[in-house]
Design brief:
α7 crosses α8 and α7 crosses α9. β8 and β9 form a beta hairpin. By secondary structure, the protein is of the alpha+beta class. The radius of gyration is 21 Å and the shape is globular. It has 15 helices and 16 strands.
């Protein structure tokens, strides 16, 4: 790998590493590289469209939800992610916290009462997971599971929720304990239905003692560097909600240094060349390409950051070549679908045509009639 690169090289590498340059319907869904890190399913057809954008044969969200090859689970950052079903036990291992400090950071404010009670965060996750496993022999709505846990957990595990006007378990430990209990989410349900993972192996209902016991391809640190590199430990730690010290301890010894605009980063890839065939993609709001923690590199104009990454109601992004050149939002009513586009620069006729094609594909993906780009 070249010792020096610029941001265009970095983004070009990510386009290729994430397979965003694949032709439509050109590969089996399980071949998508981003499944190693999980495909976040936040929002309408988020995961299925992410896969379709990478050449996966994924006609719609129902196809993903009903496929026996995939499983949906709460993992990194407590968000729902799709994985290859066959790898789910290894995902539970790989996404386990690296230490007590890591577990404490991942559960946010829930750690405060636990720490005051002398309960480590890892121990708390194990306690919740064990109780969830005892309750989860059959599918159960999230609210029903939460209410049952409230009756079985002591005060340090519970919070008084003003929104719900009720006492229930803290949200993040609840989510992060589920997979340790051998519990997945039933796709397409809202509020979510929790159900036992079929064929879950006999193992303690607790975080894995050694996350690195999972196959290397599923190690989150390596997967981040492979798919969102080059990067530095602080960026990977931010993505995982983990302490930087824990990430540094597990930093891949085969990661190579690369200087990008006078900043030292590390990568696992072998080539940082820009793709020869520019792509145009309508990326969903939580697409992996947009989840990189070096937002200054992804979108150098800081004034655009609040538009692309608002606290609530994220738009999608228009990717043209290696650059994010605008945002978009869907408009659906009466079985018809359009895309409202807010470009940040003048688009060439070629890019505009490809945007229309992408929007029409998205309409088809949603089973709606395409009426145009506004």
């Amino acid at each position: 790998m070249s010792a020096r690169a610029d941001r265009r090289d970095v983004l070009g590498y990510r386009v290729r590493a994430q397979q965003l340059d694949r032709a439509p319907d050109s590969q089996p869904p399980t071949a998508a590289a981003i499944l190693d890190l999980g495909v976040q399913d936040s929002g309408t057809d988020a995961a299925s469209w992410s896969l379709a954008n990478r050449g996966a044969r994924m006609p719609n969200a129902i196809a993903l939800q009903e496929s026996e090859e995939f499983a949906l689970a709460w993992t990194l950052r407590g968000a729902p992610h799709f994985y290859r079903r066959a790898e789910l036990p290894d995902i539970q291992t790989a996404t386990s916290p690296y230490s007590d400090a890591d577990a404490a950071k991942r559960i946010y404010d829930a750690n405060r009462p636990l720490k005051a009670a002398g309960i480590s965060a890892r121990e708390a996750l194990a306690v919740i997971a064990q109780k969830m496993r005892s309750l989860g022999a059959a599918p159960m709505a999230k609210g029903e599971m939460s209410a049952a846990l409230t009756q079985r957990l002591t005060a340090p595990y519970l919070r008084s929720c003003r929104v719900c006007q009720a006492v229930h378990p803290y949200e993040m430990p609840f989510r992060l304990a589920a997979l340790h209990a051998g519990i997945e989410l039933q796709p397409g349900t809202s509020p979510p239905i929790l159900r036992p993972v079929p064929g879950w192996p006999e193992r303690p209902a607790e975080p894995a003692s050694d996350p690195d016991a999972a196959p290397q391809t599923l190690w989150p640190i390596r997967a981040y560097l492979r798919l969102l590199g080059p990067a530095k430990p602080a960026e990977v730690a931010a993505f995982l909600d983990a302490p930087v010290a824990d990430v540094k301890k597990r930093w891949p010894p085969d990661a190579t240094e690369v200087t990008v605009d006078e900043e030292t980063l590390w990568a696992l890839g072998s080539d940082l060349q820009v793709p020869t065939d520019p792509v145009v993609r309508l990326l969903g709001p939580f697409d992996l390409f947009l989840q990189a923690k070096d937002r200054h590199r992804l979108v150098p104009d800081a004034s655009r950051h609040k538009q692309l990454w608002p606290i609530l109601g994220r738009p999608g992004a228009l990717l043209a070549g290696t650059e994010v050149v605008g945002v978009w939002r869907p408009r659906a009513a009466g079985g018809k679908f359009s895309v409202r586009l807010d470009p940040w620069q003048k688009l060439s006729p070629s890019i505009r045509l490809q945007v229309e094609e992408q929007a029409a594909r998205l309409a088809s993906h949603r089973g709606l009639v395409f009426t145009g780009v506004i």
